[in-house]
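About this split. The held-out portion is used to measure sequence recovery: a designer receives only the structure tokens and must propose an amino acid at every position. Recovery is the fraction of positions where the proposal matches the reference. Here is one held-out target exactly as it appears in the evaluation file.
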């Protein structure tokens, strides 16, 4: 009788112990992710850095998981202000690790090298990205870790503007002109390197009038929702940005946040999201 009772009670006890172990491991994992999130976001620009660049802005940053592969970056060198938004392979830990790699490359190349064109900066990042994942000199294995990125630069003295993109595009909105969509090159940083002699191009123009420039990953436009439960889509996303571009940047942030929340509704978030708006007066 005692033996039979022990057999019936023991499995429940073991399950309880296993549950407690799993619960602790899960808590440790979540705590670690939140700490990693504070480290990752600490590597990205803070308000004081934006103030040094002197341009009004807003950032809508919303990773799918606690940490993610999207990031934003800025720099200041001579009379040039630099801004970037990147989207690295994957979500969560893997994407976050790649994003920190990208931020490190941007800081090193922009501040330590003397490149005058943004396309040259992306070429150098692409080279270093490939070298990072090439284990041996004769390693011919193709690595599919990649990054999409938009990189812009504005000279406050000459009003010269540059853009280079790796499988990305940006939107320029002005009160006096129709919105302009600039498309970067059709390949990412890293990846399978299908193209031979890959070279990133730089696009140039002068911002004669005040303009607002939007850099973004594809997470916002790929979100499912609305009355028909479909993606927002690139056209609707950019039309919304242009429709609110006349507003102060802080108000634009509120509009963007509300628009995303209403569109998503009860749906799960689809992807990491990063949207950066910058005003050049």
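Reference sequence for scoring:
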């Amino acid at each position: 009788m005692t033996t039979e009772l022990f057999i019936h009670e023991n499995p429940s006890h073991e399950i309880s112990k296993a549950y407690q172990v799993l619960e602790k491991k899960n808590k440790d994992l979540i705590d670690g992710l939140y700490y990693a999130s504070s480290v990752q976001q600490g590597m990205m620009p803070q308000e004081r850095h934006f103030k040094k660049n002197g341009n009004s802005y807003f950032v809508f940053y919303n990773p799918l998981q606690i940490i993610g592969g999207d990031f934003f970056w800025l720099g200041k060198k001579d009379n040039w202000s630099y801004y970037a938004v990147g989207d690295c392979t994957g979500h969560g830990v893997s994407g976050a690790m790649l994003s920190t790699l990208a931020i490190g490359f941007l800081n090193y190349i922009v501040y330590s090298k003397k490149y005058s064109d943004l396309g040259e900066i992306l070429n150098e990042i692409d080279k270093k990205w490939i070298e990072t994942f090439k284990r041996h000199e004769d390693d011919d294995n193709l690595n599919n870790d990649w990054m999409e990125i938009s990189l812009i630069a504005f000279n406050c003295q000459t009003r010269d503007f540059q853009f280079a993109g790796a499988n990305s595009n940006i939107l320029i909105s002005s009160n006096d002109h129709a919105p302009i969509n600039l498309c970067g090159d059709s390949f990412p940083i890293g990846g399978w390197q299908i193209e031979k002699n890959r070279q990133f191009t730089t696009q140039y123009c002068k911002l004669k009038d005040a303009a607002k420039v939007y850099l973004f990953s594809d997470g916002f436009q790929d979100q499912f929702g609305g009355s028909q439960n479909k993606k927002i889509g690139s056209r609707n996303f950019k039309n919304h940005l242009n429709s609110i571009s006349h507003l102060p940047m802080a108000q634009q942030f509120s509009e963007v946040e509300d628009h995303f929340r209403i569109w998503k509704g009860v749906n799960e978030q689809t992807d990491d999201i990063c949207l950066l708006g910058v005003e050049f007066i």
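Annotator remark: The CA atoms of residues 80 and 91 lie 32 Å apart.
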